[in-house]
Give the backbone structure.
Amino acid sequence: MATISYSCRECGKTVRLQVAQSIAGSELVWHRGYSCENCGAGEEMDDIGVPPDDIRYEIIKTEGLWHLSIHEDGKRRLIAAKEIRAALNLPFSDVKSILRTIPGRLKSGTRAEMEWLKKRLSNKGINVEIFLEHENKNSTIPSFQQQIG
Ligand SMILES: [Zn+2]
């Protein structure tokens, strides 16, 4: 959960917009909401997929930048690469470049994003690990579908 400074849609007063990501079943979801202490207005919204980069940036500032490593070699590398490609909606031609990064460190993002990928890969029997790469302060945030390899 991260908070962003935001203007109330009704009265314009500054409010704290709360944003969070989570996993619901097999989907990555995110949430934003606020309630205004000044006028009582509020907003609650949920959406499926990856939030806009400004929201991801705030989540990473709060929760740190996480990364995902795959510990597989042999035939299971291909299973892992195909699952990653499908999860990230990358073109089929990217399977080769994903394969070059396995075994090893594959991808960085928010904790929920990495947990979601881990869950998808674990369901295919892939040995995968996520961990906190660094407490993020000002470094650039990798876009979720950034090219791999
Ligand atoms: Zn208000």
User: Anything to note?
Assistant: The mean pLDDT is 90. The first helix runs from residue 53 to 63. The first strand starts at residue 2 and ends at 7.
